[in-house]
Aspartokinase (Streptomyces cellulosae), 850 residues
Amino acid sequence: MGLVVQKYGGSSVADAEGIKRVAKRIVEAKQNGHQVVVVVSAMGDTTDELIDLAEKVSPMPAGREFDMLLTAGERISMALLAMAIKNLGHEAQSFTGSQAGVITDSVHNKARIIDVTPGRIRTALDEGNIAIVAGFQGVSQDKKDITTLGRGGSDTTAVALAAALDAEVCEIYTDVDGVFTADPRVVKKAKKIDWISFEDMLELAASGSKVLLHRCVEYARRYNIPIHVRSSFSGLRGTWVSSEPIEQGDQKVEQAIISGVAHDTSEAKVTVVGVPDKPGEAAAIFRAISDAEINIDMIVQNVSAASTGLTDISFTLPKTEGRKAIDALERNKGGIGFESLRYDDQIGKISLVGAGMKTNPGVTASFFEALSDAGVNIELISTSEIRISVVTRADDVSEAVRAVHSAFGLDSDSDEAVVYGGTGR
Amino acid sequence: MGLVVQKYGGSSVADAEGIKRVAKRIVEAKQNGHQVVVVVSAMGDTTDELIDLAEKVSPMPAGREFDMLLTAGERISMALLAMAIKNLGHEAQSFTGSQAGVITDSVHNKARIIDVTPGRIRTALDEGNIAIVAGFQGVSQDKKDITTLGRGGSDTTAVALAAALDAEVCEIYTDVDGVFTADPRVVKKAKKIDWISFEDMLELAASGSKVLLHRCVEYARRYNIPIHVRSSFSGLRGTWVSSEPIEQGDQKVEQAIISGVAHDTSEAKVTVVGVPDKPGEAAAIFRAISDAEINIDMIVQNVSAASTGLTDISFTLPKTEGRKAIDALERNKGGIGFESLRYDDQIGKISLVGAGMKTNPGVTASFFEALSDAGVNIELISTSEIRISVVTRADDVSEAVRAVHSAFGLDSDSDEAVVYGGTGR
């Protein structure tokens, strides 16, 4: 029996009852012979309440102080959780990110972990304690200031600690039963995935699946830490995310051809109209965007109209960055040379993810057929080796996800396999 | 213009508006040319809310985790205060007790400061920042665990930092205008004291005055740090507590004969009845009490009745310790040898404090005359060099305080001096 890292999100520890329920589950793992390290988020809406307070005091709170404020949330939940465990007769000690050795860079509000030195955690474990660690936070290497890792950072804390402590598994407890083949709020027949590879999970996370953040999965893949995503409310087995299929009973879970359908309605589309079709134009556009520190997602350049020598370039980006991107392009209009800008935030993205695409020709064709049968118009297309994404009208997204989910035999009451017929991808 | 330490209590920073008001006051001190270090308590009822949460999770929360929990409160207020100051265009940085170098022993929930190493605070000041420090908390020297200093600990943090930084003054901002000659809720004519010596303030604090805690005044006296107690709501001059009378205008504030009247209804009286009047009996009683870690206040032994050779011993202690004391004595009844125990929690204590007692005979007589005129019966008496205390019925306390306050000419609309006639104290 080795070391297990468990992570509990805010909804699992929303109140005193939740904390006591979680404490029991942790004690079970300890009684099963594991060394247990627990990473915990702030209770329920604590973080949002603290953000509200900050906004009342200052419209633009400074990063360093904002991080100091937000980390109070985990301090509360971790101390209460340690108390609840001790109340069950087991030894527990809580540690801040700094005490747990979570060393980060100095980028406040979205720091990156650069090292984990869990000496105090190791000592606590060796002395028979359950170690409770504040998620989402660390301490900067140079200035010794408190930092936070950004939303979802507690998952990354858990995986990073699991890697540093050479854990058997990192269990991410949440309020859903695992990773599903689609968002169950949109697709009622979505199925829980028993196992998914790091690669497919990364693509799902990048395509709008909210269960695990991209950064956390990336970290787990780099250090090859299996993740088990499961519910803190039920005792059910959840979804394993790992490099190799896990055993279930006495047989291996098979690699699915298609892992799932993700969607995302948080993006907007910018179209740069009338760009001269000559070398360096795209570079100028995306240099302006990158200088404004905006991350973009898809990029599509239309075929140039021979008559005018002009082309259009479209890209998608988070809606929250839309204003900034338009401003950055307008400022550089002279240098870049384009006619006009179009901004559209009524779009949605549907992505089909699965390593099986590589070896199963026809997936792309089936995907487009399903969309076409559902009457969904496609505006942009982008692909990776194991993913196809399309941009559609936002209003069409739910219908499109359901159509694709069903067409690929992912619906839970359907056992039919999809036959991939066509040639090429 | 030197360095000023300001401390703001929870009622001064109870909400976003309070934090903004306090921020303005801090900035004024900075604009007046001071280096400013601010110690801040948790907002309003935050600490009580956290205690409630802890009780829901565990009936007997462990000290280490309880401290970790409570310190979240100051983390929130200090970060918000730093943001509010920066929003006014001034540089501010917040520091936890640990970051500020507040080193304590390892007694959780009531740790004592054993050293202050404010290197980071000094650097922040030298760089032109206002430094905001979490009150009430420190880090233990041996285990590097987070500790708290007990209720009122923020005042001690402020004085300790003032001493370590060699501050000109430690300003304690609160929701009253200063230290009064009596509790203004009981005595409407109570006057604000302009200046009071450390010694008199120590006696007042020990006798029930809530404005400053005994430990904080003791610390200030040891390092000779003047304290200025004042309101964060008005801009008025408050009460100076220092070794030498301060100047006011161009004349020195004179040492008052009597500083004030304090009262305390938080104590109970235990009477050990029928104790053999022989050496070692009192020692046995108070060893039993001290082994149970109970602090007691007054002790009185009655004259032994010659006929029986038995005597009664009474002492007072916090009501909260009453149960524990009775249990400890009952457990040791055989060894000590007494007839019975009486427990009375309907008592009150009135204390008259003033260094002038030493040189003004008759203070004691006037004190008892005032009580007698008010028809107040005295149950116990205890004195120090500059204090007389009596225990009465709890119901008589308010009337007794008013009578004594008036008799010593402390009422605000009275200018008459009290003539001390009698002989002896």
